[in-house]
Amino acid sequence: MANKHADQRVGIFIDIQNLYHSSKNLYNARVNYKELISHLLNNRKLIRAMAYVVQTEGVAGMEEASSEALKNKTTKSEGSFFDALKQEGIELRMKDIQVYPGGFKKADWDVGMAIDAVRMSDFLDVVILVTGDGDFIPLVQYLKWGRGREVEVCGFSRTTNSKLKEEADEFIVLEDIPKVLIRKKAVRKKGE
């Protein structure tokens, strides 16, 4: 476990797509980002919290639309979610989902998240990556050994890459954080 003290400068980088799908598929829940940030900081100094999001709603079925037509297609539910993140002091990095001929869709922020973490590492003592994606292993290694930063990874125990857990100075099990998962209520059908 990494040493934590109040004067550490912390940057938090959140892979929203990874968290959204894992929390939904594993727990039928959503993440309480206020509780998450508070727990991760553990009374340390937040320099920046960044969330990497992909605008997906309003894009489905528009494979043939021009990229210009896809801009500003955020629906009310995505907009509300993005607003809630901003209210928690989380800065958003946004891009539209990429839709390829034949309907294949790609939503990827890995390179952008890695570049931001490297850029900001000059004024951070601790980098916290909230993701389970093993693609971030070289980033963790570089931040630790090339930049001398502590790197903490927070993710779901069942979906976080095992090598990513090993490489981090500390792995924080997301589902073990009190009040971080908000379970969706089951909808009861008539007659039950």
Write the layout of secondary structure elements.
Blueprint: E1 9-15, H1 16-27, E2 29-31, H2 33-41, E3 45-55, H3 67-70, H4 76-87, E4 91-96, E5 98-99, E6 105-106, H5 110-120, E7 126-130, H6 137-146, E8 150-155, H7 162-167, E9 170-173, E10 181-183
Parallel strand pairs: 1-3, 1-7, 3-4, 7-8, 8-9
Antiparallel strand pairs: 2-10, 5-6
Features:
Rossmann fold; 6-stranded parallel beta sheet; two-stranded antiparallel sheet; NYN; RNA nuclease activity; LabA; NYN domain-containing protein
Structure, described:
Residues 9-175 form the NYN domain. Pfam families: NYN. GO terms for molecular function: RNA nuclease activity. The protein is α/β, with parallel strands linked by helices. The protein has a domain at 10-121: 5'-nuclease (Rossmann fold, 3-Layer(aba) Sandwich). Helix content is 33%, strand content 26%. Strands 4-3-1-7-8-9 form a six-stranded parallel β-sheet, sandwiched between helices. The chain has a two-stranded antiparallel sheet with strand order 2-10. The protein is globular, with a radius of gyration of 18 Å. Residues 58-74 have low confidence and may be disordered.
Q: Summary?
A:
The protein has 192 residues and is α/β, with parallel strands linked by helices. It has a domain at 10-121: Rossmann fold, CATH 3.40.50. The chain has helices spanning 16-27, 33-41, 67-70, 76-87, 110-120, 137-146, 162-167; strands spanning 9-15, 29-31, 45-55, 91-96, 98-99, 105-106, 126-130, 150-155, 170-173, 181-183.
